[in-house]
Design brief:
The chain has three domains: about 100 residues, Rossmann fold (3-Layer(aba) Sandwich), CATH 3.40.50.720; about 230 residues, UDP-N-acetylmuramoyl-L-alanine:D-glutamate ligase; about 140 residues, Mur ligase, C-terminal domain (Protein-Tyrosine Phosphatase, Chain A, Alpha-Beta Complex). A hairpin with a 2-residue loop joins strand 18 and strand 19. Helix content is about 30%, strand content about 25%. The protein is α/β, with parallel strands linked by helices. The strands form four sheets. Strands 8-7-9-6-12-13-14-15-16-17 form a ten-stranded mixed beta sheet. A six-stranded mixed beta sheet has the order 18-19-23-20-21-22, sandwiched between helices. The protein has a five-stranded parallel beta sheet with strand order 3-2-1-4-5, with helices on both faces.
């Protein structure tokens, strides 16, 4: 049976979501609840912050998957939305499909119910898409617009991750464009369903080793996004990544969309980029971090911005948003003010607490480039603190050995590193498995103290004993990590 969905939001009374605690799925669930739909959902791993968001929204949560979860108080849902992490043999998904329920994926539901009528601003790339899409939505809101937005994280400055004020013709819709596949029956990137008018293309590197065989496969996926830019649209492309340049030039030659390039002022990509950002300086005033940067067009200074985020990668993210905002005709003073007030996204350099002078921070970084830039940004932000990195290899790529040596170089940006055992590797061939022990050895051999953690409990004890007053402990994981951060804070208190 092919997936199918109701033709309008107003026709939905009840929806059940399989895999509800994913950031995008959870945001969609909370939106539906606010829209007046009764929503239930299940997941194998129910943990904060998404579980808290869903409970506060009134979404009924069930832990684990079962056919019995499908009915809410005996009522058959109008629609079952099945997450992209759900396998084809999942008992709950199987029961929905075999039982004749109306079912679909989240990207397909959005395409069918909303996006054909809206003006869609899609933020895509290997890195930075959550922060950049959040920043863009925040700027639009702060400039007096009322955009729709759909973000795969929890922004500090927006009341929700998913907001739809209207699906009327031409309404602006900011979307985080994920390159991960849509569903087990639809093995294409989610952003293939997002009908983009404008695209911010932040970066392109190999990732998602479970679905992409190599970098060429990743590139083909993003080529597909370029092909889907609607006539009269815009591509804002980061020229820090050389492979993006020919893709952008190819789109430009079609005449279908305007191409605007950007890069760091002091980089290889700057020579070919229209806009650059440079003279980036970070400072800490009280508990606040401020980053000042200058924007240039063809080498001529055109603006100066201030951010509350650190790191050159965030200056690049801000530049891409600045370009889109000015292209949309937003007031320059309002754009500057909005950028300076943006506080970021949960689990992106998020301060969780300070105990005995040890500052503990949570971050989503898991790709070696993200690890490197995060640690480098933290060193700029807190130059007097020792940076202690805690890393859980949890993503599909980090649990494989593809970036084994790249991680060792990335962790040289910190002052000490603790590495956890990889998350479940049972479905990965022995020859392809990432080795935490090897990473510890490589980091130490390259000149930084490194330690192996056998499990969360013993790791918490190790880090608590190692940490000193003045340290910054950065916990890096794209999952729950067994509650490591909260357990560490408690251990530091004892």
């Amino acid at each position: 049976m092919k997936p199918h969905a109701p033709h309008s939001l107003d026709s939905l009374k009840t929806v059940h979501i399989v895999g509800v605690c994913g950031t995008l799925m959870g945001a969609f669930a909370a939106f539906l609840k606010r829209y007046g739909v009764q929503v239930s959902g299940s997941d194998q791993n129910v943990y904060p912050p998404m579980s808290t968001v869903l409970e506060n929204a009134g979404v009924r949560l069930m832990n684990g998957y079962s056919a019995e979860n499908l009915t809410m108080d005996g009522v058959r849902p109008d629609l079952v939305v099945i997450g992209n992490v759900i396998r084809s043999d999942n008992p709950e998904a199987r029961a929905a499909i075999d039982g004749g329920y109306a079912y679909t994926s989240l990207p397909q539901a959005m395409e069918q119910l909303m996006l054909s009528r809206t003006r869609n601003l899609v933020v895509a790339g290997t890195h930075g898409k959550t922060t950049t899409s959040s920043m863009l939505a925040h700027v639009l809101v702060a400039c007096g617009k009322d955009p729709n937005y759909f973000i795969g994280g929890v922004p500090h400055d927006l009341p929700h991750s998913f907001h739809v004020s209207s699906v009327s013709e031409g309404r602006t819709f900011v979307l985080e464009g994920d390159e991960y596949d849509t569903a087990f029956w639809d093995k294409v990137p989610k952003f293939n369903h997002y009908l983009p008018d404008d695209v911010i293309f932040t970066s392109m590197e190999f990732d998602h080793a479970d679905i992409y065989a190599d970098f060429s496969a990743v590139q083909r996926a993003f080529d597909g996004l370029m092909e889907r830019v609607r006539p009269g649209g815009r591509l804002i492309a980061c020229y820090e990544y050389p492979e993006i340049i020919p893709m952008a030039e190819a789109l430009s030659k079609t005449g279908r969309a305007e191409v605007v390039s950007y890069a760091l002022a002091e980089s290889v990509g700057a020579a070919q980029a229209r806009f650059t950002v440079g003279n980036i300086e970070s400072s800490v005033i009280g508990d606040e971090t401020f980053t000042a940067a200058e924007i240039y067009e063809y080498g001529k200074k055109v603006d100066r911005i201030s951010l509350r985020l650190s790191g050159h990668h965030n200056a690049l993210n801000a530049l891409s948003v600045w370009i889109e905002a000015h292209s949309l005709g937003l007031n320059p003073d309002s754009v500057r003010s909005a950028l300076s007030s943006f506080r970021g996204v949960k689990r992106r350099q998020e301060v969780c607490g300070e105990v005995r002078g040890v500052l503990v921070m949570d971050d989503f970084a898991h790709h070696p480039t993200a690890v490197r830039e995060t640690l480098r940004g933290l060193k700029q932000r807190y130059p007097k603190r020792r940076i202690v990195a805690i890393f859980e290899p949890r993503s599909a790529t980090s649990r494989r050995k593809f970036f084994q040596t790249d991680y060792a170089r990335a962790f040289q940006e910190g002052d000490a590193t603790f590495i956890a055992a990889p998350y479940d590797q049972t479905r990965i061939a022995d020859a392809d498995q990432f080795s935490s022990q090897q990473l510890v050895s490589d980091v130490a051999r390259m000149g930084r103290p490194a330690f192996l953690m056998a499990d969360v409990e013993s790791g918490v004890t190790q880090v608590a004993q190692f940490a000193q007053e003045g340290d910054l402990v950065a916990v890096l994981s794209n999952g729950g990590f067994g509650g490591f951060t909260s357990k560490l804070l408690n251990a530091l208190k004892s």
